[in-house]
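Each record in this resource describes a single protein on a pair of labelled lines. An example record follows, reproduced without changes.
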Amino acid sequence: MAQFLIGIDNGGTVTKAAVYTIDGREVAVSNRKTAMLMPQPGHTERDMEELWKANVAVISDVLRQSGIDPHDVAGLAVTGHGNGLYLVDGEGQAVGNGIVSTDTRAKHLVEQWYADGTAERVLPKTMQSIWAGQPVALLRWLQEHRGELLEKARWILMCKDFIRYRLTGEAYAEVTDLSGTNLFNIKEVAYDRELLADFGLQGIFDKLPPVKYSADICGYVTEQAARETGLAVGTPVAGGLFDIDASAIASGVTDEDKLCVVAGTWSINEYITKEPVVDKDLFMTSIYCIPGYWLTLEGSPTSASNLEWFTNEFFSQEHDAAAKQGISVYELCNQMVAGTKPEDSHIVFFPFLFGSNVDANAKACFIGLNGWHTKAHMVRALYEGVVFGHRQHIDKLLVHRSRPKAVRLAGGATRSEEWMQMFADILQLPVEVVEGTEQGTLGASICAGVATKHFASFSEAAQSMVKISKTYTPNEQHQAIYEQKYQAYLEVLEALQPLWKKLS
């Protein structure tokens, strides 16, 4: 009996694959970066062929690293960043570039929909806010500005659905991903022509693929995909899941007690409930991968990706210094933060490089710099600003639920002990980090295990495959200083509110 599962995770800039045993042991991991294309301000795109080649590379690499027989892979599943837009023609070829969820070109359409009452009218069906990086806004923008691309497109796909299509040759949408797009009536769990018409998109109905659930088998690896990746022909491919679901299930979120936080490209803060939470002030309620549960989320593209940009743009010397020490530049950043104290400076950083959770026009910035400040103070402020952004989201969630006993935290930031301790101190909650390096691939593998009947349910799979590696306990001595800094963060945000439009 095949004893291995493969999970694939396509984030905003990095593609990852991992091989797991049925009991959740991570056997091999591989990753590849793909270029972020910014042809115009506010446009964030990627070459879809480059993305597919990155998937081919990481799948091939984990098979090579692990040394397993491809026929011993029971199944695989794909997760990926939600929203954005990936169009293919009738032959499965890319129509233009893929669009990543951080894209803001359509923000004027979102403003229009909120002003004319569309957002309020559709809320009972969609249970979520509308924002520029969603397919609904991007499709309307294309309809108005690049209509020839929509004419050429046969299928409207999400990121992970595109990769699954290339693996299997079969086009499907998947319900967790689809339920976060505003293209879907999640109350009725169905496409809705009237909903599409509200957005002026009635003409796209026939381009929307058939809908499957996360643990449905959505095809099998084709001969062509097998030649490219090294997988065995006929390997089952599950429906997969929205990356917010993958991170939640990989964090062991199988009941209503836990709160999951993901600190990666996006600030994801979420919990599950048996009754949908519908509130115009909340970011999103979507369908969870566990039948009978809804996923309530507060999120924005305001998390750890701010650090990647900062180090790429300003840390050329530090990159060289880290290389000489045989460490990454991020480890060097951790050393810089560890060498400072919360009370050393009061620089405020707003983590809005790729979007905002306060205003569509808000911009990233450092406020409060003095001549005696060093790069270390700026890095600490960046770490703090990211956590403050998460806390804003969590405070909104706690209006609708009781305070959790602990937070399960995933994402790239978990590699930093300094950042994890900061989360615990600012939230004043224990932070539990799941064993393994990649929650997205683990969540996808859990999905594959359920789809191939190795587990009777997602809950059973999570119980078997998810293990806590470390818990960070809040330092009560830091509570007062971080509370003071957080209140300053909020007050400066409020003071800047009238200026964002002028700076856009």
About this structure: The CA atoms of residues 188 and 363 lie 37 Å apart. The chain has a mean pLDDT of 95. The two ends are 58 Å apart (CA to CA). The chain is about 40% helix and 20% strand.
